[in-house]
């Protein structure tokens, strides 16, 4: 379907045109959102907000300009706003653990989104050696806090504190890297 025709139909309030637009662009918008937010629910919300804005602003669309530019500009701006809002603790590290678990394995990274892997890897590399060791042991799922404490000759409270601080540091760094990549 011709995009100019699709935009024209959308401007007239045609819901079928809107559905076609959603089918064409929603998966790409979700992939981009997830890459930067590292959170499935937030990425889904970003896509939903994107298409809600498209529907609301449909009458203002320019038929002579590619709709994909408008879509991804709106999405990029929304993602930047989400990432910049430090009040939101947007990164749910559990959503990224599948990526983190690959760090110690001899696995091909082809399944991983390269930029997302690099953001996470850079953030982990910024941890101090002690925090990096605690973090790696903790996310491996092989050790309890007590076992890590015993192996490293530290208290359980130290392990909990260092792990918590590691997560905070990683979240902050990923947010900063994501903003830099979007700019």
From TrEMBL:
Keywords: DNA-directed RNA polymerase, Sigma factor, Transcription, Transcription regulation. Gene3D superfamilies: 1.10.1740.10, Winged helix-like DNA-binding domain superfamily/Winged helix DNA-binding domain. The keyword Transcription regulation applies. It comes from the Bacteria. SUPFAM superfamilies: Sigma2 domain of RNA polymerase sigma factors, Sigma3 and sigma4 domains of RNA polymerase sigma factors. InterPro entries: RNA_pol_sigma-70-like (IPR039425), RNA_pol_sigma-70_dom (IPR014284), RNA_pol_sigma70_r2 (IPR007627), RNA_pol_sigma70_r4_t2 (IPR013249), RNA_pol_sigma_r2 (IPR013325), RNA_pol_sigma_r3/r4-like (IPR013324), WH-like_DNA-bd_sf (IPR036388). The keyword Zinc-finger does not apply. Residues 118-169 form the RNA polymerase sigma factor 70 region 4 type domain. GO terms for cellular component: DNA-directed RNA polymerase complex. Residues 21-87 form the RNA polymerase sigma-70 region domain. Belongs to the sigma-70 factor family. ECF subfamily. This is DNA-directed RNA polymerase sigma-70 factor. It comes from Bacteroides sedimenti.
């Amino acid at each position: 379907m011709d995009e100019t025709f699709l935009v024209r139909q959308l401007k007239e309030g045609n819901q079928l045109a809107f559905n076609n637009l959603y089918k064409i662009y929603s998966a790409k918008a979700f992939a981009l959102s997830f890459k930067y937010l590292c959170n499935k629910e937030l990425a889904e919300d970003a896509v939903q907000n994107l298409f809600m804005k498209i529907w609301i602003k449909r009458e203002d669309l320019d038929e002579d300009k590619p709709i994909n530019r408008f879509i991804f500009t709106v999405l990029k701006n929304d993602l930047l706003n989400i990432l910049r809002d430090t009040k939101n603790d947007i990164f749910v590290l559990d959503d990224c653990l599948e990526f983190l678990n690959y760090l110690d394995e001899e696995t091909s990274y082809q399944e991983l989104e390269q930029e997302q892997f690099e953001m996470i890897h850079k953030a982990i590399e910024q941890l101090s050696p002690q925090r990096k060791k605690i973090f790696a042991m903790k996310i491996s799922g092989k050790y309890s806090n007590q076992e890590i404490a015993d192996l490293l000759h530290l208290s359980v409270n130290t392990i909990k504190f260092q792990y918590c601080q590691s997560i905070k540091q990683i979240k902050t760094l990923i947010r900063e890297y994501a903003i830099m990549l979007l700019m």
